[in-house]
Amino acid sequence: MQQKSRAFLKWAGGKYSLVENINARLNQASKHADTLVEPFVGAGSVFLNSDFKHYILNDINADLINLYKELKSSPDELISDAKKLFVDLNNHADAYYEYRVQFNQSRDVYERSILFLYMNRHGYNGLCRYNLKGIFNVPFGKYKKPYFPEKEMYFFV
Ligand SMILES: C[S@@+](CC[C@H](N)C(=O)[O-])C[C@H]1O[C@@H](n2cnc3c(N)ncnc32)[C@H](O)[C@@H]1O
Predict the structure, then answer these.
(1) Which residues in the chain show pLDDT less than 50?
(2) Which atom of ligand 1 is nearest to the CA of 16?
(3) Can you give the pLDDT at residue 1?
(4) Running DSSP on this structure, what letter comes out for residue 74?
(5) Residue 116 needs a FRET pair 20 to 30 A away by CA distance; which of 28, 55, 65, 81 works?
(6) Mutate to test the pocket of ligand 1, among 26, 60, 65 (most ligand atoms within 8 A of CB)
């Protein structure tokens, strides 16, 4: 297998470390099928490292899927706007909690997508958790310098 590609999101239960084993089997299948269906795509480590002609990707998390759709439809714009949030000034609890409120109050898919990515890298352990009312409630992560996954986002599109 050529060099593995990392997903641009941190995601609990990601299959990055199992990709060689999973894809050894999938690549056999890809000789007979041209579409990979991923009903639980998560951050996408498996599909990103597979070689199918077509992909059908699904996940119950609407913020995740909306981010993928927004990134696909305007990659340069989204990457450039998201990058602006990855500055030292925004790597503080106060800033994080303000952006978290903004995310929870927003119904704008593009705005939510950018903030979702920011919180994925600045929140605790890259967790994605909502309360029963659908409010995102992951605390600040206290990372020294959160990584902006530009290269991985361009690979995704
Ligand atoms: C462990 S992650 C998937 C890992 C991924 N296949 C990879 O390549 O690394 C599991 C995903 O399943 C999604 N999920 C859980 N229940 C679901 C459901 N009923 N329908 C669709 N997606 C679901 C979660 O939102 C989560 O993103």
Answers:
(1) none
(2) 9
(3) 56
(4) S
(5) 55
(6) 60
Is the pTM for the entire model greater than 0.85? yes
> What are the residue ranges spanned by the domains of the chain?
16-57, 75-143
Q: What amino acid is encoded at 66 in this protein? A: N
CA-to-CA distance for 117 and 129, rounded, in angstroms?
A: 14
- How many DSSP H helices and E strands does the chain contain? 7, 2
Question: Is ligand 1 within 6 A of the CB of residue 45?
Answer: yes
Å from CA of 38 to ligand 1 middle: 9
The pLDDT value given to residue 155: 95
Decide: helix, strand or coil at residue 140: strand
User: Which of the 8 DSSP states describes residue 157?
Assistant: -
Grouping H, G, I as helix, E, B as strand and the rest as coil, residue 39 is coil
Q: Is the CB of 61 under 6 A from ligand 1?
A: yes
Cα dihedral angle (65, 139, 15, 82), rounded to 10 degrees? 50
The answer to whether domain 75-143 has CATH 3.40.50.2300 is no
What Rg value do the Cα atoms of the chain yield, rounded? 16
The pLDDT value recorded for residue 100 is 98
Strand partners, 57: 38
